Amino acid sequence: MSMRYVMGLFAFLLASLVLGGDTIAAAEGKRVMLLGTANTNPYIGAWTASFAKVVTQAGMKVTNLSSNYDAAVQSQQIDDAIAQKFDMIVLCYVNDQAIVPALTRAKAAGIPVILWATPIKKDYEELFTSYVGTDHSELGRIAGENMVKGLAAEGKTKAQVIAVTGLAQQIHVATRIEAFKAVIAKHPAIELVAVEDGKWNTALSEKITGELLVRFSARGGVDGIFAMADNQATGSIQAVESAGLKLGVADKGIVIVASNCMKDGIVHINSGQQYSTATQIPTEEAQVAANKVSAYFNGQKLNKYEMVPVYGITKENVGQFAAGCSY
User: Fold this and answer.
1) Strand pairing report for 255-257 and 113-116
2) Are 6 and 326 in contact (CB under 8 A)?
3) CATH, range 136-278
């Protein structure tokens, strides 16, 4: 693992730690409602499991619920947390507009809310205590830059690129794709010809990719794919292979990049089927968030944005991140 990554992560984790018996005593018995979108999603499931383990060890009582991407269900879960007088809500929301009334009710009830995975519009900053997670514009930028590098490695002077995103109604998805577009816009010979909502789902991403490959087959074909998460990249890889098309820089095939790492991505980068991904590692983020929750209960004021550093991953440095990404 690179010394830069190790030292950066160590410094951040050290800064997020709250040491001493008083911290455990302050957190002891606190009831935390942990709400996610869908624990069946690899990233979400790993995040919630890691967070629940750490805060439980600190003496807190955690209720871990999933809404299966249903905004109405999630709003009801927040109302239940309010009615049951939980001490904190730790939330990855489904829809940035639908969640506002529920957050407003939580604030009125005096229950602090920690956002994770995705922040919310700055218009609503007063409704949450802190966001703990990554800078999604950085993840989008890294994906865009790696797309440009991958196409350049193939000697492409002109290219058509498609994007298969996470759940489009989430603000961090929009943030990532806008940052990706901003990079691509600096290279007029590279055109982003389609953006479709893959809803963080592998099978749906495969289906969408297959349809787009057919749509553009008579229009010069697809040269690059931004599949927002590594499981979605797996779907895109399967679609490309099913279509009998070349894949990867070594074969001067379709270049696939992603923007948060999983085990699949590490495997596919090593095999050459995927050009790149980036470090949005749920186990590390959850550890930081758990430390911040303990700090809050110990009386520490949290920053509005507690950012976890991100790094791009390609074949050149994949070994440095394989362990962390293979959750």
Assistant:
1) unpaired
2) no
3) 3.40.50.2300
